[in-house]
Specification:
37% of the residues lie in helices and 21% in strands. It is an alpha+beta fold. The chain has one domain. The strands form two sheets. The chain has a six-stranded antiparallel beta sheet. Strands 1-3 form a two-stranded antiparallel sheet.
């Protein structure tokens, strides 16, 4: 499947209209903001990509080579990256969505690649899944330190990033989209 990415503000606004639930979308943007806060990556940092993709993924966030947060158009499911140690912890997530393959640096260090787990439709992440040594926050920092840039940076939509961190801008755009 050929995925195309859109990097302008109009495309971002039109893509937001795929969601008919403002409250859910607000929560999702709060998670994007959390990724940015945890990693301290600015919009122009070559490691972070907030994108508008014409695919099943809805506004995914990539750090270096991997999605760290994504949701899906056909449902209100969202996935976050964490370590494989949480594979069977269905008390903390609703299943594994994707098993990442080992990157060359991980092979050299014999590191186990992370996974994407599905979080509930309310977008709440249990404290243990978020804060644990193997959880989301730690895995975000590992991914941030893994490389110096994303091969997908050309697909970065700075308006997604801006809506995550600038609440005034987010309100203006959301008022326009969710009238």
């Amino acid at each position: 499947m050929n995925t195309s990415y859109l990097t302008d503000e109009d495309a971002f606004i039109e893509h937001l209209r795929l969601s008919d639930d403002r409250k859910w979308t607000e929560k999702y943007f709060n998670l994007i903001e959390e990724v940015i806060t945890i990693t301290s990556l600015s919009s122009d940092n070559p490691r972070i990509v907030t994108s508008v993709a014409r695919s099943n993924a809805y506004l995914p966030v990539t750090i270096n080579n991997r999605y760290v947060l994504a949701s899906f158009r056909q449902s209100y499911d969202a996935v976050i990256i964490c370590q494989r140690q949480f594979l069977d912890r269905l008390d903390l997530h609703t299943g594994v969505s994707y098993y990442f393959k080992q990157l060359s640096g991980e092979k050299a260090e014999h590191d186990i690649p992370p996974i994407l787990v599905v979080i509930d439709n309310n977008l709440s992440i249990p404290q243990e899944l978020k804060e644990s040594l193997y959880g989301w926050k730690r895995t975000l920092l590992i991914e941030t330190g893994r490389a110096k840039s994303s091969p997908y940076k050309r697909y970065h939509n700075p308006y997604v990033y801006k809506a995550a961190v600038d609440k005034t801008y987010r309100k203006i755009i959301f008022d326009l989209v969710f009238e």
